[in-house]
Write a structure and sequence with these properties.
- There is one protein chain.
- With about 325 residues, the protein is mostly helical.
- Helix content is about 60%, strand content about 0%.
- It contains 14 helices and two strands, in the order ααβαααβααααααααα.
- A two-stranded antiparallel ribbon has the order 1-2.
- Helix 11 packs across helix 12.
- The protein is elongated and about 85 Å long.
- It comes from Agathobaculum ammoniilyticum.
- InterPro entries: Lin1244/Lin1753-like_N.
């Protein structure tokens, strides 16, 4: 029995303009270095396996996200949810075909041109022209010797004559599924955007209250925690502990506390109350409310006033969201 023809590539052209593509600007502004690294990781998977596309539906989607996460594993690893959000953003900004992405396919004209050029000397290449983006003219400009071009020119015209009703039913089902996916994507994007905005505001408060600088990666981590359900009160409590301890590296100390809260499932004010030591529940009258949290910083009274204001704002947001949800059901 003959050997299975090779489908993927052993290497791909990393041209000097790959990371300076204007389409990468928006993802970089939102996700920093992660946008570039995840983009490269996807290209590696694309060229290695299928050669010019990645199946991205159902279990295959989870597998792709896992593969990317495995490539990022280490000190600066990130969550599966963040990876999925970055991939959505890369497709939304045009680095991958939007039409095919909605059909659960990751590919692009750039990737297919690279694949076409790399396989010119192959005697057999299996291509699905339903997801092929290059025209006959595009391919001839690259090379007229490719077996892909010959297969494209001689491909059979689909003359299948299905009953009209069946065709209509199929199109209707596909349309409903597409609208459902688009709605889910919009809702997911809205939630992520709201979490990022809340994280930005909270990061600014933390920088002022405990005198630290919160970098872009930490801001993304805070947004992820908020999106996972962690309340501002919990993050403020972690910052209060950081201010009390005066560690040499306050940002790293704060991050460690938040990671511990996430690991232990401490996400709400009620969780904090249930896990707080008795020493942390002392009568406020017994404490020096005019003592600064750190040299040159706000006093305990100012800190707790700001924390109470954040709790009030969070409650107002929750009530407003609940009212909006009820109104939408009327």
């Amino acid at each position: 029995m003959g050997r299975q023809p090779k489908q993927g590539l052993d290497y791909f052209p990393f041209d000097v303009g790959l990371l300076s593509d204007p389409k990468l600007r928006r993802p970089r502004q939102k996700y920093g270095y992660l946008a570039q690294v995840i983009y490269i990781a996807l290209l590696c998977i694309l060229y290695r396996d299928k050669g010019y596309y990645i199946p991205y539906g159902g279990e295959q989607r989870e597998d792709v996200i896992w593969q990317v996460g495995d490539m990022l594993n280490g000190r600066y690893s990130t969550s599966s949810e963040t990876i999925a959000n970055v991939i959505d953003e890369l497709a939304a900004c045009g680095l991958f075909s939007g039409d095919l992405f909605r059909r659960d396919i990751i590919t692009s004209t750039r990737a297919q041109k690279a694949y076409y050029t790399a396989t010119v000397d192959r005697k057999y290449v299996d291509v699905n022209f339903d997801i092929w983006l290059l025209s006959e003219t595009d391919m001839k400009k690259l090379s007229s010797k490719s077996v892909i071009l010959q297969s494209f020119i001689s491909r059979p015209i689909n003359t299948e004559n299905r009953p009209i009703n069946e065709d209509d039913r199929t199109k209707s089902t596909q349309s409903r599924e597409q609208k459902s996916r688009e709605k889910q994507s919009t809702e997911k994007h809205s939630i992520a955007e709201n979490s990022r905005e809340r994280a930005e505001a909270l990061a600014a408060d933390l920088e002022r209250l405990i005198g630290i600088e919160i970098d872009d990666n930490f801001r993304l981590d805070i947004a992820r925690l908020i999106q996972a359900g962690m309340q501002e009160a919990v993050i403020m409590e972690a910052s209060r502990q950081t201010g009390n301890k005066h560690p040499r590296k306050p940002a790293a100390y704060l991050r460690t506390i938040l990671q511990g809260y996430e690991r232990d499932g401490v996400l709400t004010a009620a969780d904090l109350e249930a896990t707080a030591p008795k020493s942390d529940k002392a009568d406020p009258a017994e404490r020096n409310m005019n003592r600064p949290m750190y040299p040159g910083g706000p006093t305990v009274a100012e800190w707790e006033a700001r924390e109470a204001e954040l709790r009030r704002q969070a409650k107002a947001r929750r009530l407003g969201s609940a009212y909006t949800d009820r109104s939408g059901d009327i």
